[in-house]
Write a structure and sequence with these properties.
alpha+beta, Trypsin Inhibitor V, Chain A, 5 domains, six-stranded antiparallel β-sheet, 17 helices, 29 strands
Length: 647
């Protein structure tokens, strides 16, 4: 169906030049196009007249429905929804212009024989669920979630395509006529449909969730659940059977099973599905690079996996809990010899009064004056650091201070003691206390590398942490906006701490190499693709550079461009073509000037140089290469002998 009328090279809306055909949808052909206004590649979805029933081409209601759906899609702006930029009607049919997704589609991956790992499926599912969550918040139902409508950027991030247009067409009163002309088979039409759609009910946001679950399950297992050769059996199975992954894929499998329940009220919303997938990420390893598939042979492979590079894994543990010993000694003063009993009694009374006012410190004073060298250990549970030091200093004990962490405590709080309260200790003996360093440390989630920053932030928030400084750097394998590594010395941090992250800027910018005029196209392509740059060939006439050789590159050599940029190689198509001017009745000198102005030259002159020209070779109006020399025949002098042909 593609290019039957020579669409390639045509310009839609005076702006979008169709470059190559890259896909076929239910009702459309999809082209890679060049936006002449913005100098960028875009995708053009063209609703060909081939799929429209007779009489629909000028049918205003149908055209209005299509363009209204396109306008609604263009109003949606989200990182996981393919952006529509323009739409209109042309002599080739109705069209919608959107972002060109260089990474191809999920269908392309599976058609190439690739199954995705649970980690890869989780990342694709998270992106798609976020896209659905956004459009559902706008009151929009996608209605046609299938692998061909999950596309990937060159950096491997998934986006939902075909927002609203297919649904608007098939759900209208004329949808049956369109479906009858669709390139999809009957089983294709119901393969990813929800149970309620199989019953003929109007789909809603839960229907999109169900379809996404079928797509993700197919990407994992290679088979769509409930699929058979009989469309009616497929529909009945969806209405009566529960999705069963037989315990496969761990927590991810359980999330998919819940979201694939036949009763729509039992399914989660797109937002809830995203939360479930994010929770399942904690049980899975980091995803490998996605096997991005370029859409066609004419498209340079500038894609890059959504999955990130392997991070520097830190193995350091929290340092052993320190054990500090503090010894506080103070010499005791022995009772003074020779004091009278009355003096001792009075001192004891004074000490008892002080004891009542000053607690343990007074008791220590009493004992140092009149008692033995043994003092009872007080209850230290509510004692602060300063008071603890004073007690030990006054008693002459040695303090052994052991530190540990315990939830529900604050740093410096005494958790226990030995010996227990009331035990007598002499000077120089040891009292041991266990002091809190605060709550237990929180383990930084180990799956942050490879997640988008917002996903890493959600994972940290789930354990009471937050994102701290975000440092960015270029990385040749990690996609832009994805965490490369956690920039923390230890794998455990204080509760409520912020965690510094290193986030990828994507591959470093490239500098367009110096490609000399006259170089071969193969050499130019090799040098550009070695830098990871895409190549588009553009042929122009050139009167100096030989055909098939490089005229120039755009942007110019030395220009710094993004790693995923496309460089245009302008290639000579040979000399331009010019027409031989009419030279009859001109003099030889005049003819020479006329030919020179036309890009030609004067060749041989057959006849007198001072006579008027009768004819030229090649003849006037003949198309020739620029620079061709034209011979002329002048009128012979009177009386000159004529040739037999002239006689």
């Amino acid at each position: 169906m593609a290019n039957d009328r020579g669409e390639i090279g045509r310009v839609l809306g005076g702006r979008y030049r169709l470059v190559t055909h890259i896909g076929t949808g239910r009702f459309t052909n999809v082209y890679l196009a060049y936006d002449l206004s913005q100098s960028r590649r875009v995708a053009v979805k063209l609703l060909s007249e081939d799929v429209l029933p007779d009489g629909w081409i000028g049918e205003g209601a149908f055209v209005g429905r299509f363009l209204e759906a396109a306008e609604e899609a263009a109003a949606v702006s989200h990182p996981h929804v393919v952006a529509a930029h323009n739409w209109g009607d042309s002599d080739l049919g109705l069209y919608v212009v959107s972002d060109y997704m260089e990474g191809g589609s999920l269908l392309g991956m599976m058609d190439a024989g690739h199954l995705l790992s649970p980690s890869q499926v989780l990342m694709v599912g998270l992106d798609a669920a976020r896209g659905l969550e956004h459009i559902h918040d706008q009151g929009i139902i996608h209605g046609d979630i299938r692998p061909s409508n999950i596309l990937f950027s060159h950096r491997g991030r998934a986006r939902l395509a075909d927002l609203g247009t297919s649904w608007a067409l098939t759900s209208s009163e004329t949808g049956g006529a369109l479906m009858a002309r669709s390139v999809f088979s009957a089983i294709d039409a119901v393969r990813y449909a929800s149970p309620e759609q199989a019953q003929g009910l109007t789909p809603d946001h839960k229907s999109d969730v169900y379809s996404l679950v079928l797509v993700l399950t197919e990407a994992l297992s290679g088979r769509v659940p409930f699929e058979s050769d009989d469309p009616e059996y497929t529909q009945m199975a969806k209405m009566s059977r529960q999705l069963d992954l037989a315990g496969q894929f761990s927590r991810l499998g359980r999330v998919l099973e819940q979201a694939g329940r036949p009763e729509r009220d039992d399914r989660p919303s797109a937002r809830e599905l995203g939360h479930g997938l994010l929770a399942a990420a904690e049980t899975l390893p980091r995803p490998a690079l996605l096997p991005l598939i370029k859409p066609g042979p004419e498209i340079p492979d500038t894609g890059e996996s959504a999955a990130a590079a392997v991070p520097d894994k830190r193995s350091e543990e929290t340092p052993p809990k320190a054990k500090r010993r503090m010894a506080f000694r103070e010499g005791s003063s022995a009772p003074r010899e020779g004091r009278s009993a009355l003096r001792r009694l009075l001192a004891a009374v004074v000490a008892l009064v002080v004891l009542g006012a000053a607690g343990f410190g007074a008791y220590a004073l009493w004992d140092s004056q009149f008692g033995s060298d043994t003092l009872p250990v007080p209850d230290l549970a509510e004692v602060d650091e300063a008071h603890l030091s004073r007690i030990v200093g006054e008693s002459g004990w040695v303090l052994e201070r052991l530190e540990r962490r315990q939830d529900g405590t604050v740093a410096g709080q005494i958790l226990g003691q030995a010996p227990l309260e009331g035990t007598g200790l002499e000077r120089g003996e040891t009292v041991t206390v266990w002091v809190s360093l605060g709550p237990e440390l929180v383990v930084i989630p180990g799956n942050l590398a490879g997640l988008a920053v917002e996903d890493a932030e959600a994972s940290l928030a789930a354990v009471g942490l937050s994102v701290g400084d975000v440092n960015e750097r270029y990385d040749e394998t990690a996609i832009e906006g994805v965490v490369i590594e956690v920039d923390e010395l230890f794998s455990e941090v204080e509760p409520g701490s912020s965690v510094d992250l290193v986030v990828s800027l994507g591959p470093a910018p490239r500098v367009v190499p110096d490609i000399a005029t006259g170089s071969s196209l193969a050499v130019a392509r090799e040098r550009l693709e070695a830098l990871g740059l895409g190549v588009i060939e553009w042929q122009v006439p050139d009167n100096v550079v030989a055909a098939g050789r490089v005229v120039r590159v755009e942007p110019l050599p030395g220009t710094e461009v993004a790693a995923d940029s496309v460089v245009t190689v302008v290639v000579s198509d040979g000399p331009e073509k010019v027409r031989v001017p009419f030279l009859a009745t001109l003099g030889v000198g005049e003819a020479s000037n006329v030919l020179e102005q036309a890009g030609l030259c004067l060749g041989e002159v057959d006849g007198p140089l001072d006579s008027e020209i009768l004819a030229s070779n090649p003849l006037a109006d003949t198309v020739v290469d620029f620079g061709t020399c034209v011979s002329v025949i002048t009128r012979p002098e009177e009386g000159a002998e004529q040739s037999p042909q002239e006689g």
